[in-house]
């Protein structure tokens, strides 16, 4: 479930990046790569899990599924927070700089 | 247990490599040898794709390990490291799952670099054909 949520987040971020490319003022390319990296890593995790327990892999307990879904959503939220921090620090549009140097 | 450590180590190495490459490219640009002028994306940009995938993946996986109580904010930080038997299992997991994770991300990046090289080649051909016209 965590893998699925991460893959969907990666796909959405990639589509958003593609819509604005080659301009990447919002650094959505970074966000997409971050989710793709995590998705690939969880794919490996899933393969190892499947190899160790092929029957149990496709029939998880509802409580485990709910926990995994909750984890997946939390991971997406953390990814968005990291992206937002990077965006504000890099400040490609210079908005933070303008706001800081604004003279009243 | 700690499979993300392999990707984190690779991410550190790639970050350093990207910085070194960026400096080299800046030097070449001063000599008038810009990769963009030859219709190619700078290699440092391509390294940054790998860097972002590795750092992003490692950070999100580290969060998953915190979620499951496998990483804690006190020494030795990895709960499995406190017990010698569990530590052995952890090391085995790092050597199998961890290496496979870093390997798959690197393989995906190599695919991206390959596809981008094909796109650059095609663009160069199209430019040459237009120049002949």
Describe the protein.
Chain A is built from five helices and no strands. Chain A is an all-alpha fold and 104 residues long. Chain A has one domain. The longest helix of chain A has 29 residues. Chain A starts with a helix and ends with a helix. The mean pLDDT of chain A is 93. Chain B is mainly alpha-helical and 133 residues long. Chain B has one domain. Helices cover 76% and strands 0% of the residues of chain B. Chain B contains three helices and no strands. In chain B, helix 1 runs antiparallel to helix 2 and helix 1 packs parallel to helix 3. Chain B is elongated, with a radius of gyration of 20 Å. The model of chain B has no long low-confidence stretch (mean pLDDT 91). Chains A and B meet through helix 2 and helix 4 of A and helix 2 and helix 3 of B.
Shape of chain A: elongated
Which regions of chain B have little confidence, pLDDT < 50, spanning 5+ residues?
none
Average pLDDT figure of chain B:
91
Percent range of helical residues of chain B: over 70%
* Derived structural class of chain B: mainly alpha
Count of all domains of chain B: 1
Biggest interchain interface, per-side counts: A-B, 24 and 24 residues
The radius of gyration of chain A is 18 Å
Largest sheet of chain A: none
Radius of gyration of chain B: 20 Å
Question: Care to count the β-strands of chain B?
Answer: 0
Residue stretches of chain A low in confidence (pLDDT < 50, at least 5 long) are: none
SSE order of chain A, one letter for each helix or strand: HHHHH
Query: What is the CA–CA distance across the termini of chain A?
Result: 50 Å
Number of strands of chain A: 0
Task: Tell me, briefly, the overall form of chain B.
Answer: elongated
